[in-house]
């Protein structure tokens, strides 16, 4: 990337042109594509990275995601997704890399909310701090319907580690520090670990009205749909081409419904269109 492009991407007006478009979607590795996002342009990072979890032992974690995160008796097996087989040390280091890269894109006081499970909770808390964010706490997502295990406490929660890019101003509303809802039925999901829209809308309430939310592990696009539903702008990055296309379709459908309700238009930009925007004087 040449100096002219870097200067453009660092300019607040360039950031405004980017986010005014409504939705920007990119397909590829977030560590490569994050450099194309203007610094200081993101109000909130809300993302659900691969957990590299799903088992007590290294051999368990090496299994495909479809085996680790879906019941053995389910008939609707979802496709595997990449990046879910790291061991503990490499997972923590990898999370630190992308947290640090995402921090540069966040405005001062911006919020990050990162999904994880009980096995990777400590690693994620470490990673947000090693990546330069201020660790603020944990938001449990409690599922009222969970598979019982004989002789064990039920594993009926996932967790959101939340952090900030420095100081948080004492303004805005009060936000409940937990959320109770069930995941979608497997038959209604596109992605094996798809998060409920109502959960994402609850979490992004801390972002400014009309602000920009970024998800670097977009999956099937649920965060983008929640942004459209709540009138926020969205930047989504997804590595898998199949899930990227599914996300694009879901977000376009949500936009079509929003236009009927709000009579507005917020086009999705391709990577090529984003590059043309960057090249504008």
Automatic annotation (TrEMBL):
Record's compositionally biased regions (Polar residues): 62-72
Signal peptide: none
Region (Disordered): 52-82
An annotated Gene Ontology molecular function: DNA binding
Enzyme Commission code(s) on record: 2.1.1.-
GO BP term (any one): methylation
Compositional bias (Basic and acidic residues): 73-82
Lineage top rank: taxon: Bacteria
Location of the DNA methylase N-4/N-6 domain: 42-249
Gene Ontology cellular component annotations, sorted alphabetically: cytoplasm
UniProt entry keywords in alphabetical sequence: Methyltransferase, Restriction system, Transferase
Protein family membership: Belongs to the N(4)/N(6)-methyltransferase family.
Record-given protein name: Methyltransferase
Organism field: Flavonifractor plautii
Encoding gene per record: dpnA_1
């Amino acid at each position: 990337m040449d100096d002219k492009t870097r200067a453009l991407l660092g300019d607040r007006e360039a950031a405004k042109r980017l986010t005014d478009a409504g939705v920007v979607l990119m397909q590829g590795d977030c560590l490569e594509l994050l450099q194309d996002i203007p610094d200081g342009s993101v109000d909130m990072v809300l993302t659900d990275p691969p957990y590299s979890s799903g088992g007590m032992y290294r051999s368990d974690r090496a299994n495909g995601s479809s085996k680790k995160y879906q019941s053995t008796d389910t008939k609707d097996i979802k496709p595997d997704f990449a990046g879910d087989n790291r061991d503990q040390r490499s997972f923590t280091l990898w999370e630190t890399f992308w947290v640090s890269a995402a921090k540069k894109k966040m405005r001062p006081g911006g919020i990050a909310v990162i999904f994880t499970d009980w096995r990777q909770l400590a690693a994620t808390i470490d990673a947000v701090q090693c990546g330069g964010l201020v660790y603020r706490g944990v938001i449990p997502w409690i599922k009222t319907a969970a598979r019982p295990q004989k002789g064990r406490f039920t594993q009926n929660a996932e967790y959101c580690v939340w952090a900030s890019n420095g100081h948080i101003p004492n303004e805005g509303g009060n936000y409940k520090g937990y959320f109770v809802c069930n995941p979608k039925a497997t038959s209604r999901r596109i992605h094996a670990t798809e998060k409920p829209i109502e959960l994402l809308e609850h979490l992004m309430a801390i972002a400014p009205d009309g602000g920009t939310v970024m998800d670097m592990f977009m999956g099937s696009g649920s965060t983008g749909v929640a942004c459209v539903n709540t009138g926020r702008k969205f930047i989504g990055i997804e590595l898998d081409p199949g899930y990227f296309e599914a996300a694009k379709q879901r977000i376009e459908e949500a936009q079509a419904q929003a236009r009927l309700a709000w009579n507005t238009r917020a086009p999705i930009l391709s990577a090529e269109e984003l590059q043309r925007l960057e090249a504008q004087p």
